[in-house]
Amino acid sequence: MENLVTIIPLASKVHPQRTYRETLKSYTEIFIRYPDVKLLDVVTDVGEVEELLKKENIKHLALIFLTGGTSSLARHIVKVLKKKFVTLIAHGSDNSLPSALSCKGRLELIGVKTHIIFSANPVDVVDEFNRLYKVLHAAYATKTMKVALIYDSKKSSEALEFERRTGAKVIPISPSEIDEEMDNVSTSDVEEVLKKVFGGAKIRLSKKLLHKPLSFYIAVKNIVKRIGADAATINCFKFITEKNITPCIAVALLINEGIPFACEEDYHSLLLLTIANKLNTVGWIANPSSIGKDYIVFAHCTIAPKLTESLSILEHFETGKPASLSGKLISNVKYTIARITYDYKRLFALAATLEKSGLISKRMCRTQAYFKLKDLRPSEFLKKAKGNHHVIIQGNILHELKILSKVLNITFEN
Hints:
Layout: E1 5-10, H1 17-31, E2 37-39, H2 49-54, E3 60-65, H3 71-81, E4 85-90, H4 96-109, E5 113-118, H5 126-144, E6 146-150, H6 157-166, E7 169-173, H7 175-183, H8 187-198, E8 202-203, H9 211-227, E9 231-234, H10 236-243, H11 248-256, E10 261-262, H12 267-278, E11 283-291, E12 296-300, E13 308-315, E14 322-329, E15 335-340, E16 346-358, E17 367-373, H13 378-384, E18 390-394, H14 398-408, E19 411-413
Parallel strand pairs: 1-2, 1-3, 3-4, 4-5, 6-7, 6-9, 8-13, 9-10, 16-19
Antiparallel strand pairs: 11-12, 11-18, 12-17, 13-14, 15-16, 15-18, 16-17
């Protein structure tokens, strides 16, 4: 397994080893638990750096300030590695924190983004490091993901731009491949999904009309697994026009199963769905569809069942085709509303609380959610919004998104 994080402990030569021996032992006992985290030997002099680093392929760098007097040594390592982001780990003894803060301030002056993790006792670093660890895995996923472009024979301009911006790979899956896979889906396969996934749902249209949408879901799931894709996207309206069904159920169910699937070939939202997945939560792509004095209504037809307290299947809002999902979102949790800008350079995110949800209006997409934003009035949201699709993510993950923005070298806004 390749190392995701390389940690270098730093100590000043003026501090005898006995000063930091127990501190180092505590950190070692923690970081050895992570299979893709490597803890190097203690570095005390710039003369040790270049020879040490020649042997290492460092994706993400973290520096432990075991003692004071290590700021210049830390900065030298960052410069040698030409890193644009570094994690600084400090504790409450031996002038560790002052050195970390000195390093932070000087690195930021030369454009290096930093994330500092402080715990008075080294053993208490675990919770905050776990949050960073998940963020780094999320960032890595956005750069290495394989995306199935469903029902297209070639990459669109949006797909090519996504590849260029992120390093991800898009794999077109032609209509004929989809048709062939759908033909292999049996009636019993469809009935099993209906029973297993939608046993408690209200079905407001003929079950016969669900055969093709559910066959499409099973087909996409099989193809994604076969080609080793991490995620999927689709040009919805082209698909709806040619197949007379919607991909809404497939989008919702694959997201529900931990496979990010973005409708309307929206790669910006696909990134956020992937990030949510790696942070052990789940997202829902939705449009801001109306605003009130103290709320914004978000709506779409692709809600993942695990985000809901109750669920219905009915016809698609804009086309009347089968089928879409309408659900009441879980009400006793916090939410984050996020958007990546069209140029992939900024991430806009806000904390929000749910006021009400469900099929409230017949003139909007089938799941509607009224959110009250923390620290922002609805009228101000219209000025700040960076596009139509936003991703509603279960849980308050603003802290993680701020770190992620530094890792990806994009600007965080809220």
